[in-house]
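Write out the 3D structure for:
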Amino acid sequence: MSGWAAPGSTAVVAVRQTIQPGWHTYWRNPGDSGGATTLTWTTPQGVKAGDIVWPLPERQRLSGLMNYGYSGEVYLPVPVQVPATARAGASLALKVRALFFVCSAEMCVPDELILELDLPVREGAAPLNPVHGAAIQRVLETAPRPAGIEARMVMETDGLVLTAAGGPLAAGDPGPSYFFPFEGGVIEQAAPQTGAWGPQGLTLRMRPGGTTRADGLSGPIAGVLATRHGAFEIRAEPGPALAGTSGSGDLAAAPDGGGAEAPAAANANPATFAQALLFALLGGLILNLMPCVFPILAMKAAALAASAHDPREARRDGLAFLAGVLTTFLLLAGALLALRAAGEAVGWGFQLQSPPVMAGLALLMLAVALNLSGVFHVGGGLQGTGSGPLARLPGGVGAFFTGVLAVVVAAPCTAPFMAFALGAALLMPWPMALLVFLGLGLGLALPYLAVSLTPGLLSRLPRPGPWMERLKGLLAFPLYATALWLAWVFGRQAGGDALGLLFVAGVLLALGLWLTGQGQSERMAGRRGLLHLAAGALAVLLALGATVMAARTPPSADGPAAAGRAGPASTPWSPAAVEAALAEGRPVLVNFTADWCVTCKINERAALTSPRVAAAMDESGALYLVGDWTRRDDAITAELQRHGRSGVPLYLVYSPGSAEPRILPQLLTEGVVIEALTAAID
C-alpha cells in the first residue's frame, strides 16, 4: 500500500484480482461450491506475512446454490511485519503462490500465479502507493472487523435464530441484513434470511446447514454480519435471544450481491457430476475411433482372433483388458489430481510432455512390434506345427498390458465429449473425479469387452489357423509406425543429438530381442541357448543405457521447433499477442496443439493448411497464433483450463469487440474454419 516499509513497521501488501465479466472468485467460505483463494508466502528471515484481510463478499446465486465471492476487481490485502533489524536501503524479497478458483456459469477452473515483490526498506513514514494505495486503503477501511457486538445463536424448531446487540447495531434500523458464516455447513446458504430489529440490535432467522443439523450447536459460530451500518465480525455463543433485538420492525430482504448469479462448481452439483460421467462414457467410446488408438486396435484384433473360439479364454481376455484400462486410468487420474493438489499446472496427456516418457514409449512400441513380427516370443512359446506361434500377447497378462498401452497411447487424444468431462473432473472431490475417469476407461474398453463376452459374435470369426501368423505379422506395422512417430516427437522435444542416441538404443534393443528370440528357438530345439540369451540381455542393457543418455541430453537451443509446423504463417501464442491484435481490429485464430497429438496433426493437414482457409485468413486479416504444448507450458495449461479443457486440441477464434472467443470443434473442416473467420469480421 505504501511506497516502502520502515524497520519495525507493518506494511500492507495486496494481491489484486482483475476478474473478467461473467467470472468470479471466492471468499474464505466459498458457499455451496468453489474454493477459497489461498496465499502461500515465502519471505526473508524475520518477515512474517499475516492472514488475508477479506473484503465483504457478494452473494452469488445459481439455481438452488448460493456462493460467496467477488467479481470485477478485488484487492486482498495482507499485513506484513517488518523486523526492527531490517536495514534501511535494503529491499525485502516477497514471494507468494496465489491459488484461486475462477468460475463462470458453465465451468470452474483453478488458477495459480507466482507473484514476487521487492519491498524497499527506508526510514520514516511512507506515502501511499500512487497506483494502488488508495484502493487498498478503502478495502482496509471497509473490511469487516469486530465492533463490540454481542451475539447469541439458538436452535429452535423452525431453524436457527441469531440475535446481535450493541455497538453500531443500536443506531437504528439496520436495513437489509445478512449473516456470512466463516465455515461451510453451518447454515443453508441458499435459503432466505428473515428477521426483525429492535432498539438494541437485530434478529435473523436462518435454516440450519448439514453440519448443524447433524451436530447441533456444539460451540460458538463466527462470521460476518452485513448491515446498513456496516459489516462486522461477530462470534455468536450458544444461548437464549438477547433483549432489545426485535419489536421495532421487520428487516428488509437482503438482495443478492453483484447482480450476477454464481457459477455452480462441478464439485457440488450432482447434475453436473452425472453429465460429466455420461460424457466420459461417450468420450471413451468415441476414443476407439480416434487416430491415436489405431495401433492398439491392431493389438486388440490379434488377441481377439486368437481366443475367438474359446469363450472362456475370450471372457478372461476381455475382463483383463478392462482391468488394464481402468487401472491405468486410475493411476493417471491419481497422478493428475495429486499434481493439481500440489499446485502443479498439468493437463490431460501430461505424461507425453516428458522426453524420457516418450523415449520409453517409443522403445516399448518397437519391442511389441518385434514380438508381433515373431522376432521373439513372450510367454507360451511355440504351438503345434499347424498353427505356429499364437498371434496374440500371452494370456490374461498380455490382455491386461494391452489395456495399459491403449490408455497410454490414447492420452494424446481428447475425443468429443471428453473436454467437459475431464475439465469438470479436475475440479470435483477426488472420489467423484476418479469415477469420471473410470467412466472414460469403461467407454474405451466397452466395445472389446462386449465382443469378448458375446459368444454369438465370437462364433462368426474365422477359426484359428496359419492365417493368424500372417495377420500377426501384418498388425506389427502399425506398431512400427507408432514407434517412429513417438521417436519423432521425442526429437522435437529433445533435439537431434538426443534423437540420434535414441536410434542407437532402438538398434541395440532390436538386436537384443533378436538374440533373445534365437535363444528361445535354441531352447525349443532342445539346446540350452545360453549364449544367445546372455548376449541378448547385454544388448538390452546397453539399449537402456543409451536411452538414459538420450533422455539426459540437453535440448537444443531452439527447443521443439515451431518452424516447419503445418499451417499458415504463425506467431507464438500469448495473451498479449491476442490483445494487441484485437486492439488493431484484427480477428485472431488460436491453435493450441502438440506434436504428440495426432488429432491436432490431422486437423492441421485437413483444415488449417488448405488454400481456401489461407484465402479466408488473408481476406479477414486474421492473426494466426500457435500455442505449442509439446513440452510443458504452464501458461498454455492455464489457458486450456480457462476454457474448460484439460488437453489439446483447442481452437479459438476472437472477434474484435468481443470479450470471449468462439470455441471451434475438436475435429475441424475447412468450412468450419472459414465460417468462423467470416463471422469474426461481420
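The longest strand covers residues 91-103.
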